[in-house]
Amino acid sequence: MGSTVTQRDWIADVRNAGVVAVANATGIMHPVRDDRPGSGWTPCPACTDNTRHRKRGDKRGAVGLTRDGQGWRCFQCDASGDAVTLACYAAGQGAKLTRDNHKAVYELCERAGLIGPALSSNPRRTPSPVAAPVPSEPDYPPDNEVYHLYQYEARGLAEAADTEANTWLMSRKLDPAVIAATDRVHVLPKSASAPSWAMIGGKPWPATPYRLLAELWNAEGSLCSVHARAVTTAEPKSANPKGHTLAGLVLCCPCAQGMLYGRTADIERVRQHGLVICEGLPDWLTKIARNHGNPEAPAVLGIVSGSWTQAHADKVPDGCRVLIATDRDKDGDRYAAKIAETLARRMRAGTLDVRRWKPKE
Fold it and tell me: Percentage of the chain with pLDDT > 70?
């Protein structure tokens, strides 16, 4: 190590450069999709997995970055660290910088252009500029907690036999047996446990009316969050994970989820039979119940709080008919306009037939 560069100086240079700079300079991992924020990085430098949550078919990269680009974590093995940790892995020296390996890590960083005499010769130099922050992943609840809450703490409608949930469904003219058969919503028993984000008014969802849960999916067809609906009279009528965003998340029937995920059979079905985009959980449930068991029915997506994005629009296949079935009110009109805007180019080109739902007179 050159005499003008102290260990503290070069470590600061690497840390200031950030995770993205180290990854790009050493090639140890790369973004899954440069044009899709939140798509993750791959492979994990620790376990070498490429995607997160293999059992759930999640296409995002195994590694996520912190908002400031200074840290990383693997969703498979839970390994984590900063830019220096990543450089240690890139040099084949494990996860920790030690007396024994610091020379090898330093030399790799020097070759990669992350440090050098010009950066470190002035003991009173200003720190190296921090790499421009990369778009961060949306702030969704931890994946494992979402999955555990929906699959293990909550129950299917038939198993739960919850009187309040069934009464609420019937009040919306929905047959509980049909909704149970779709397996698109689960019920939290009042005795269930819930993570800290599944709270409203200081109480966990199971201890409140907000016990009917629906899954929320991102534009890649991956489960990211849940939406809770009150099964008795309550205001507000629904609840969402506390401290987390719903941006970019939608309700999906199985075919719509398959379309987002990229399954060929589901894409072809949407192309042949169309796509309905509706607003809110009750309308979405009404439409999937009506279509249940009909292989020629259109796929159904539901938006909550205007969660539709261009990324969702890009997954709609050319050649299909899209029916925008949002409410005929101020919010519904605004949502419809946003959806139409994301599809406008293909509408003008004649590759999509997009129409707005009109209520029967």
Answer: 88
Query: What amino acid is encoded at 183 in this protein?
Result: D
pLDDT digits (tens, 9 = 90+) for 41-88: 888 888 888 887 666 666 778 888 887 778 888 887 778 888 988 999
The answer as to whether 265 is a domain residue is: yes
Q: Over 60: is that where the pLDDT of 91 sits?
A: yes
List Cα–Cα distances, 265 to 90, 257, 271, in angstroms.
40, 12, 10
Pairing of strands 299-303, 353-356: unpaired
DSSP string over 150-193: IIIISEEHHHH--HHHHHHHHHTT--HHHHHHHT-EEE--TT--
Identify whether residues 30 and 91 lie together within a single domain.
yes
- Bridge partners, residue 250, by sequence: 217, 303
- Count other C-beta atoms under 10 Å from residue 220's C-beta: 22
Provide the domain limits for residue 178.
138-243
pLDDT of residue 56: 60
From CA 241, how far away is CA 344, in angstroms rounded? 32
Prediction pTM value = 0.64
Residues in the chain: 361
* Location of structure tokens 């440090």: 115
Residues 276, 349 within the same domain: yes
